[in-house]
């Protein structure tokens, strides 16, 4: 029987949980260490809570993108593309300075999981899932039939699931007000979302899923104009007891949540 183990490490102001389907060996431990090291190095560059980070110095010292780590310019370009594609529902510069918090965690996690390329290709493990703050990048070896089954927590009904999704290789991200309160701000208006609202997106990469989950939550239940241009596989938006699901750029159902009271 294939073993399963999880390693938990603090990073990015939250925790990274790395779950491996396979036996633990020195080569697997090396991949885990490399994964965590990449996350922490990206935190060093992008953290808005560190005065010495490249992002903070860009804001506080008036530096140019050419003066900081080249990863910042890469992320800035992706954020500009997201702003245009989402119709301004995502905007990393809406405060007047560049803050890619809504994008960079997923982007960093995608990069960090590439530490497992070798062991997956060699069949040394069946699968690996990297969960950073509740958003997941899930991978499965080509030789394995493993399927990740992910439960999406109901935003207001504790211990209940809103939905489940099955993923072989991809990413799942959720954005909303259930866990962190009114922290989401519509960049077009500067107004915080009072909620309750939740959006979960499934995509090939976590950078995509994370950013477009934020877009979906900002847009809310009655605005799906962004959906046809979003490069995502599927998702669900929940707000005030109503749910709408989408897949392949079209809405696949519109219904009242059966658990709403």
* CATH architecture call: Roll
Average pLDDT works out at 91
- CATH homologous superfamily annotation: ApbE-like domains
Strand order of the largest sheet: 1-2-3-4-7-10-11-12-13
User: How many strand segments?
Assistant: 13
Task: Give the arrangement of secondary structure elements.
Elements: E1 4-11, E2 14-21, H1 26-46, H2 54-60, H3 70-85, H4 101-113, H5 117-121, E3 127-132, E4 135-140, E5 148-153, E6 161-167, E7 170-176, E8 185-186, E9 191-192, E10 197-203, H6 206-219, E11 234-239, E12 242-247, E13 250-256
Antiparallel strand pairs: 1-2, 2-3, 3-4, 4-7, 5-6, 7-10, 8-9, 10-11, 11-12, 12-13
Helix pairs in contact: 1-4, 4-6
Task: Tell me briefly what this model is.
This protein has 261 residues and is an alpha+beta fold. It has six helices and 13 strands. The protein has one domain: T-fold, CATH 3.10.520.
How would you sum up this structure, described in words?
The chain is of the alpha+beta class and 261 residues long. The chain has a single domain (4-256), classed as T-fold. It is built from 6 helices and 13 strands. Strands 1-2-3-4-7-10-11-12-13 form a 9-stranded antiparallel beta sheet, covered by helices on one side. Strands 5-6 form a two-stranded antiparallel sheet. Strands 8-9 form a two-stranded antiparallel ribbon. Helix 1 (26-46) runs antiparallel to helix 4 (101-113). The radius of gyration is 19 Å and the shape is globular.
């Amino acid at each position: 029987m294939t073993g399963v183990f999880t390693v938990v490490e603090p990073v990015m102001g939250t925790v990274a949980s790395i779950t491996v389907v396979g036996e633990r060996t020195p080569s697997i431990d090396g991949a885990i260490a490399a994964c965590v090291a990449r996350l922490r190095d990206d935190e060093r560059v992008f953290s808005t809570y560190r005065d010495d980070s490249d992002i903070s110095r860009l804001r506080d010292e008036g530096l140019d993108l050419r003066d900081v780590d080249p990863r910042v310019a890469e992320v800035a370009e992706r954020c500009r593309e997201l702003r245009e594609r989402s119709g301004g529902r995502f905007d990393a510069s809406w405060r007047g300075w560049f803050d890619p918090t809504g994008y960079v965690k997923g982007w960093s996690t995608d990069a960090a999981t590439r530490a497992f390329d070798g062991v997956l290709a060699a069949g040394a493990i069946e699968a690996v899932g990297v969960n950073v703050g509740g958003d997941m990048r899930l991978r499965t070896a080509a030789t394995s039939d493993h399927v990740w089954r992910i439960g999406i927590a109901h935003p207001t009904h504790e211990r209940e699931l809103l939905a489940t999704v099955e993923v072989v290789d991809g990413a799942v991200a959720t954005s909303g007000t259930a866990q962190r309160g009114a922290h989401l701000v519509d960049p077009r208006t500067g107004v915080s979302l009072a909620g309750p609202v939740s959006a979960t997106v499934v995509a090939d990469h976590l950078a995509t899923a994370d950013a477009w989950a934020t877009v979906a939550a900002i847009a809310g239940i009655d605005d799906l104009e962004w959906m046809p241009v979003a490069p995502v596989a599927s998702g669900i938006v929940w707000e005030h007891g109503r749910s709408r699901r989408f897949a392949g750029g079209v809405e696949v159902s519109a219904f009242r949540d059966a658990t709403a009271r």
